[in-house]
Amino acid sequence: MLVPMAVLRMPPLGVAGTAAVVVGILYLCMIIVRFATPPSRLRLALLAVDMLAIAFVSLLAVLLVAERATLV
Predict the structure, then answer these.
(1) 63 to each of 3, 5, 13, 56, how far by Cα in Å?
(2) What is the distance between the alpha carbons of residues 26 and 56, in angstroms, rounded to a whole number?
(3) Contacts with 36 (C-beta within 8 Å, 6 or more apart), sequence order
(4) Are 2 and 61 in contact (CB under 8 A)?
(5) Residues near 27 by Cβ (< 8 Å), separated by ≥ 6?
(6) With 0-12 CB in 10 A as exposed, 13-18 as middle and 19+ as buried, what is 67?
(7) Greatest CA separation found in the chain?
């Protein structure tokens, strides 16, 4: 959902693209956590925090773009 917003250059410019890059980095962090930590509650906690961060960044970006779209 963020990539089409970035491609369409929806205002505010750069928010959707930046959020898509941040989400990609967070997914990469999930892969690193998967292979760098032994199976344990720590791994589950780190992956859960990462998923919450992805959800937060995505929701914030969509809300910012949607709020700006209503003003235009």
Answers:
(1) 15, 12, 14, 10
(2) 11
(3) none
(4) yes
(5) 54
(6) exposed
(7) 50
Q: Structure pTM?
A: 0.83
Scan for tokens 């910012």, then name that residue: 64
| Residue 47 lies in domain | 2-71
Distance CA 71, CA 68 (A): 5
Residues in CB range of 51: below 8 A, 6 or more apart: 30
Number of domains the chain is built from:
1
Q: Could you identify the residue written with the tokens 């089409």?
A: 4
Q: Give the tens place of pLDDT for each residue, 21-68.
A: 999 999 999 999 999 999 999 999 999 999 999 999 999 998 888 888
